[in-house]
C-alpha cells in the first residue's frame, strides 16, 4: 500500500495544530476507523468483477451490431441496437423491473448449464411483428391477447437471431443456444432463486419509429464455468500465446514441399498469325526487353523479382536483384 511521506514543515504544522487544539487526535483516529468499514448488502451480492462486466459488455456490443444487421435484413426497415448498460442485480429485482405483461423468450446455452431470458419490450415486439406482416412497423400493445400465429411468428424471428448470439460468444466459448419456452407473464417464470445474482444486459432498440428495450438476463450459474475466461488477463494470454514449436516445424515442412512454377521472362513480342506460320530457321523475332534492363521472374504467373541472366556451373541461371513490391502484375 502506498504511503505519503510528509515534509518537515508539514509535520511541524500538524504538531502545532494538535497542540493548539485546532485538531483533535481522537477525532482523527475515529475517522480512520470509520473509513475501514464498508457497507455490504448480502441480498445484492456482487459476484462479478468490473473486469468481467466489461468483458460481457464487449461481447454484447458485438452481438448488438450483429443483431442490427440481422433485423434490418429481416424487417427491411431502419433498425438500431446498442448496449445501454450491463449490471449485476438479484433475479427478483430484474423481474420487478420489467413490465407485468411482456414478451419473454427462454433459451438454453449448451454446453453451459441453466437458461437465459430475452425480454423484448412489447413496443419493440409488435413493431417487429407488424413489419414482418407487411405493415409500416406500428406498435399496438396487446400482449394479453396474442394469437397462436403471432406467437409462432415472433418465436421464429427471435430463434433465428440465435446464430448472432453464437457468433458473439465464439471468442469465449462455442455455445449452441436453443429456444426453450415463450412466456408473457414474468411472475410465472422462476428461473433461479430470487436472491441469485444475474447479469442484465440492456439494449437500446429502435425499429422504424418505435423504440424500447431488449433485456438479456444471464444467471450467475450459467457463467460460473467460464467466469475465468471473462478477464482481460485471459484474453491477452489467448491473443499472445506462442505457437507450438512442433506445429511451426510441421507447417514449415509442409510449405517446403509445395511446388510452384517459376519463369524468367526474357522478353515478349507480338506478331500476327501469318508471320508465325511462315517462320523459318534463322528468322529473328525482336523482343520488347531492353538489354540494359533487368528481366522479370514470375512465380505462378505473378511477377515477384527483377533478375539478371547468367551461368551457374555451365547451366543457365538468373541472379535476383530486387523484390517487386506487391508481387503481382498490377505493380509492374
Automatic annotation (TrEMBL):
InterPro entries: CheC-like_sf (IPR028976), Flag_FliM (IPR001689), FliN-like_C (IPR001543), SpoA-like_sf (IPR036429). Signal peptide: none annotated. Its main location: other. Pfam families: FliM (PF02154), FliMN_C (PF01052). It is a peripheral membrane protein. It is found in: Bacterial flagellum basal body; Cell membrane. Residues 255-324 form the Flagellar motor switch protein FliN-like C-terminal domain. Keywords: Bacterial flagellum, Cell membrane, Cell projection, Chemotaxis, Cilium, Flagellar rotation, Flagellum, Membrane. Coiled coil: none annotated. The keyword Membrane applies. SUPFAM superfamilies: CheC-like (SSF103039), Surface presentation of antigens (SPOA) (SSF101801). The keyword Membrane applies. NCBIfam families: fliM_switch. Belongs to the FliM family. This is Flagellar motor switch protein FliM. It comes from Sediminibacillus dalangtanensis.
Amino acid at each position: 500500500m502506498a504511503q505519503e511521506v510528509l515534509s518537515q514543515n508539514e509535520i511541524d504544522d500538524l504538531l502545532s495544530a494538535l497542540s493548539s487544539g485546532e485538531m483533535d487526535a481522537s477525532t482523527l483516529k475515529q475517522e480512520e476507523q470509520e473509513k475501514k468499514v464498508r457497507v455490504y448488502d448480502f441480498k445484492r451480492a456482487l459476484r462479478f468483477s468490473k473486469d468481467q462486466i466489461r468483458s460481457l459488455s464487449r461481447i454484447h456490443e458485438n452481438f448488438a451490431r450483429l443483431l442490427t444487421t440481422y433485423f434490418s435484413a429481416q424487417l427491411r426497415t431502419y433498425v438500431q441496437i446498442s448496449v445501454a448498460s450491463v449490471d449485476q442485480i438479484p433475479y427478483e429485482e430484474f423481474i420487478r423491473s420489467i413490465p407485468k405483461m411482456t414478451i419473454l423468450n427462454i433459451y438454453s446455452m449448451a454446453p453451459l448449464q441453466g437458461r437465459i431470458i430475452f425480454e423484448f419490450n412489447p413496443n419493440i415486439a409488435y413493431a417487429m411483428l407488424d413489419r414482418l406482416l407487411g405493415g409500416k412497423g406500428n406498435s399496438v400493445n396487446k400482449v394479453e391477447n396474442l394469437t397462436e400465429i403471432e406467437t409462432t411468428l415472433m418465436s421464429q424471428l427471435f430463434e433465428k437471431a440465435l446464430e448472432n448470439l453464437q457468433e458473439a460468444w465464439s471468442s469465449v466459448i462455442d455455445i449452441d443456444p436453443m429456444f426453450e419456452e415463450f412466456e408473457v407473464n414474468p411472475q410465472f417464470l422462476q428461473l433461479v432463486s430470487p436472491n441469485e445474482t444475474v447479469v442484465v444486459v440492456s439494449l437500446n432498440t429502435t425499429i422504424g419509429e418505435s423504440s424500447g428495450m431488449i433485456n438479456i438476463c444471464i444467471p450467475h450459474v450459467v457463467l460460473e464455468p467460464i467466469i475465468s475466461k471473462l478477464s482481460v488477463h485471459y484474453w491477452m494470454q489467448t491473443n499472445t500465446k506462442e505457437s507450438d514449436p512442433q506445429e511451426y516445424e510441421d507447417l514449415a515442412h509442409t510449405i517446403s514441399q509445395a511446388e510452384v512454377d517459376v519463369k524468367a521472362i526474357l522478353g515478349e513480342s507480338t506478331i500476327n498469325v501469318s508471320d508465325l506460320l511462315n517462320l523459318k530457321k534463322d528468322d529473328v523475332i525482336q523482343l520488347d526487353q531492353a538489354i540494359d534492363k533487368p528481366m522479370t521472374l514470375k512465380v505462378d504467373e505473378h511477377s515477384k523479382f527483377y533478375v539478371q541472366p547468367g551461368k551457374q556451373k555451365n547451366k543457365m541461371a538468373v541472379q535476383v536483384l530486387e523484390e517487386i513490391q506487391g508481387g503481382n502484375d498490377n505493380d509492374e
